[in-house]
Amino acid sequence: MKKRINAKRLMAVCCIMLLLCSTLMLSGCEVFTGHKEKDVQINTLEELNGKPVYAVMGTSNAAALLECEELKDSEVLYATGDNDAAQKLITGKTSAFVTDNIFANTIVAKYESLKVLDEPISVSNLGFAFQKDNELQNTFNASIAKFKENGIIDEIHDKWFATDISEVKVPEQNYKGKNGTLKVAVDPSYEPICFLDADGNLQGFDIELLIEIARDNGYNLKFVQKDFGEILPNVAAGNADLGASGITITEDRSDFVDFSTPYFSNSTVVVVRDTTVDDTGEAAKMTIGTACYKVFVENEHYNLLLKGFGMSALFTVISIITANIFGFLLYLWVYSGCWFAKAVCLRIRRFIQLIPGMIWLYIVFYLVFVGSTEDGFIASLVAFTIMFGNVAYGVWGLGFGEISEGQKEAAYAMGYGKYTALFKIYLPQAWPVFLENVNIEMVGLVKSTALVELVSVFDIQAASDTILNETAVPFIPIILPAIAYVIIAVAVSKIISLMEVNAKKKIEDPELVDKKILKG
Fold first, then answer.
1. Is the separation of the CB atoms in 453 and 459 below 8 Å?
2. Are 161 and 104 in contact (CB under 8 A)?
3. 200/347 same-domain check
4. What's the structural domain count of the chain?
5. Residue 450 Cα to chain centre, angstroms
6. What's the first-to-final CA gap in the chain, in angstroms?
7. 220 and 325 both lie in a single domain
8. Segments forming the whole domain that contains residue 269
9. Which of 152, 208, 299, 506 has the largest count of CB atoms under 10 Å?
10. For 461-473, what is the HEC assignment?
């Protein structure tokens, strides 16, 4: 029998981990501070050639890097986003990364130990993406041409590419969209083109320009957040009316989507470390106190953490309830003696058990829900309900397996039917056994729910990643999810343990057993 999780022991381990991490951070440990030895300054592409360079997979910058003759000997590595690439550069894991010049300026302003090389590796144009042969393309082209002529695009550009945009906001859609609502797929990872502010609201150059174009043509906009690599496939499939977030127009992309008239010129540039700046790195300069003040007070990210923690806890609770109900219903189906349940259902159940949780989540999200971020919560709930419902089914079977043949024969002798015996005699005795064994499995579910961030459900992990974009200190997004999931896991374990104790008291009471179980 599996050993039960001890809540006090878990809390003690958590406290020890926090104390150890704090000690390492205060002592200047490289893992937490990003401290590194001083590097040789890179000033040209020739000096960078042969050294590792990061790019965000699926972007035109990655394609430009692979085609760059000046960097043909460099190893191309892939990051999840520009902020991820910046952290790898700051901590010495790479020599450079490539990005759009519009994003590079924002990144360099945020991390003063980085700089942009003067020589770009490619020049391109940005445009909005539409499904092939969509009339919206002509509508948007007309507005873009008008806004270029009357200077509106220049005004929006000057607004969002100013030195300080902390107080800049996009206008509200306070007009009547007489022609309907358009769904726009965006990736809020590219400040100042498209990003989330401290309150989780979309801001940026693309967002404001889109709102002005929509207002000009009598449309309202509904923004749907996607990873960058998912934007064009969703537009091509008709799951979104258009896509934005600084999309570079390329011939390959034009094969399966149409682009608007270019509204912005762009270039792919290389970001490297500036060794003339203090080599202690951005993270080392920020003490724990100043980092926490910046994150929780100055940027008011405690709101994101509370929202993320609440969503994580809500998702966990609902998943536990639905998974156990599903597992019990599955057991009832097999218990009914249905040949299909025994011959087919259990084989499918075995198949699902063999699939890693992350792959199963992707299967449900992309095949069943077609990658719709607005259904990400439901998609995740369905995936975890099925995945852990299978586990619950096995535990229910273990609980009912504790019922002796003598009790079954006695139930039939008393005239109980198949299901009456199940609910009135077997279930009360199987319940505490089920709780005892399901406890450890549900703690595993809590840990696995961190995967929901993969399909853009806003949870504590996603909140921590947002915080990482606002600070160069990596320990905050590492520790916060760990603390949150430990708290949730301990709470879940404690609640199930109390239910188990209460259930055991009932079946150990001779009078109760005689009156309520044996006599129905």
1. yes
2. no
3. no
4. 3
5. 8
6. 30
7. no
8. 36-127+263-285
9. 208
10. HHHHHHHHCCCCC
Q: Are residues 123 and 190 in the same domain?
A: no
Do residues 254 and 267 both lie within one domain?
no
Whether residue 331 contacts residue 400, with contact meaning beta carbons closer than 8 Å, is answered with yes
Same domain for 367 and 393, yes or no, is: yes
Distance CA 430, CA 397 (A): 9
Instruction: Report residue 96: phi and psi, to 5°.
Output: -170, 170
Beta-sheet pairing, 189-190 with 194-196: antiparallel
The residue length of the chain stands at: 520
Same domain, 368 and 509: yes
- What is the amino acid identity at position 494? K
- 403 inside domain: yes
Question: Mind listing the pLDDT tens digit for each residue in 437-468?
Answer: 888 788 778 878 777 776 666 677 766 766 66
The dihedral sign for the CA sequence 416, 417, 418, 424 = negative
CB 60 within 8 A of CB 43: no
Backbone phi and psi for residue 56, each to the nearest 5 degrees, phi listed first: -85, 120
pLDDT digits (tens, 9 = 90+) for 151-176: 999 999 989 987 678 788 999 998 88
Q: What is the DSSP string of 284-353?
A: HHS-HHHHHIIIIIIS-THHHHHHHHHHHHHHHHHHHHHHHHHHHHHHHHHHTT-HHIIIIIHHHHHHHH
Say if 361 falls within a structural domain: yes
Instruction: Provide the strand spans (E) within 157-313.
Output: 181-186, 189-190, 194-196, 202-203, 220-225, 242-243, 258-259, 264-273
Q: Which helix (H) or strand (E) holds 37?
A: none
Instruction: Kindly report, residue by residue over 81-126, the tens digit of the pLDDT.
Output: 787 788 788 877 889 999 988 788 878 887 778 999 988 998 889 9
Question: Does the global pTM surpass 0.70?
Answer: no
Contact status, residue 407 vs residue 415, Cβ threshold 8 Å: no
| CB proximity list for 200: less than 8 A, separation 6 or greater | 303, 304, 307, 458, 466
Structure tokens, 284: 């080392």
Instruction: Give the pLDDT of residue 430.
Output: 82
Q: Any idea what the CATH number is for the domain that residue 63 is in?
A: 3.40.190.10
**300 within some domain:** no
Instruction: For residue 491, give every residue at least 6 positions away whose Cβ sits within 8 Å of its Cβ, in sequence order, or none.
Output: none
The conformation of residue 367, written as its DSSP 8-state character, comes to I
pLDDT number for residue 502: 79
* 325 and 276 within one domain: no
112 and 229, same domain (yes or no): no
* 445 neighbors 317 (Cβ within 8 angstroms): no
DSSP three-state, residue 258: strand
Measured in whole angstroms, the distance separating CA 432 from the mean position of its chain's CA atoms is 36
CATH of the domain at 504: 1.10.3720.10
